[in-house]
């Protein structure tokens, strides 16, 4: 029964992780679209203003050239911003476990900064960080997943073998 519960929990956690990943992708896309809408609205407003300025008779050729050059730079910035928006990624894994106090500082980062400033503990914190990284990396591998599945299978087999009147060596 315990293995069935573990199986169901594993499935539910996988579904939740997928929901979170989909939500992050959606929010990233929505943020990028909002940024593009705001930028396009701003650019349209500037273009209209520049058209009015260019249409005025008192505008000199030098001012017209300056406006055209500014338009080229704005187009280059827009292209660069669009490429930058595509390459950004959000990583909230480290931020999830930290609580913030009323000053906006997380307690964990405050304590770590206080203790890390002491030279004697610096090596310990680095070793702990490397160990945490290694453990996180190991747990996320496909091999570890199958190792857990095999252990659950062996556990199920061991509990299924027990029966009434079994010999002492089996107990």
Write the layout of secondary structure elements.
Elements: H1 2-55, H2 61-87, H3 107-116, H4 119-139, H5 142-161
What this model shows, in words?
- The protein has helices at residues 2-55, 61-87, 107-116, 119-139, 142-161.
- The protein has 171 residues and is an all-alpha fold.
- The radius of gyration is 30 Å and the shape is elongated.
- The two termini are 19 Å apart.
- The protein has 5 helices and no strands.
- The model is unreliable at 89-105 (pLDDT under 50).
- 77% of the residues lie in helices and 0% in strands.
- The chain has a domain at 1-58.
- This is Ion transport domain-containing protein.
Which stretches of 5+ consecutive residues score pLDDT under 50? 89-105
What is the number of beta strands? 0
Q: Would you tell me the overall average pLDDT?
A: 77
The level of helicity is: over 70%
* Number of DSSP helical runs: 5
**Spatial extent as radius of gyration:** 30 Å
Beta-strand residue percentage: under 5%
Query: Shape from CA axes?
Result: elongated
Separation of the first and last Cα atoms: 19 Å
Biggest sheet character: none
The H/E string reads: HHHHH
Structural class: mainly alpha
Protein name: Ion transport domain-containing protein
GO molecular function: high voltage-gated calcium channel activity
Keywords: Glycoprotein, Ion channel, Ion transport, Membrane, Transmembrane, Transmembrane helix, Transport, Voltage-gated channel
């Amino acid at each position: 029964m315990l293995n069935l519960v573990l199986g169901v929990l594993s499935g539910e956690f996988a579904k939740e992780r997928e929901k979170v990943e989909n939500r992050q992708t959606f929010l990233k896309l929505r943020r990028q679209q909002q940024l593009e809408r705001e930028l396009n609205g701003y650019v349209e407003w500037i273009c209209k203003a520049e058209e009015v300025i260019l249409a005025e008779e008192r505008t000199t050729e030098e001012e017209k050239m300056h406006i055209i050059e500014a338009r080229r730079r704005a187009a280059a910035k827009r292209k660069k911003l669009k490429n930058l928006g595509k390459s950004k990624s959000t990583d909230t894994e480290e931020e999830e476990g930290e609580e913030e106090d009323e000053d906006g500082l997380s307690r964990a980062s405050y304590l770590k900064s206080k203790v890390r400033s002491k030279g004697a503990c610096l090596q310990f914190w680095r070793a702990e960080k490397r160990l945490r990284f290694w453990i996180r990396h190991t747990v996320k591998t496909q091999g570890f997943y199958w190792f857990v599945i095999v252990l659950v299978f062996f556990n199920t087999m061991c509990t299924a073998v027990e029966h009434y009147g079994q010999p002492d060596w089996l107990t």
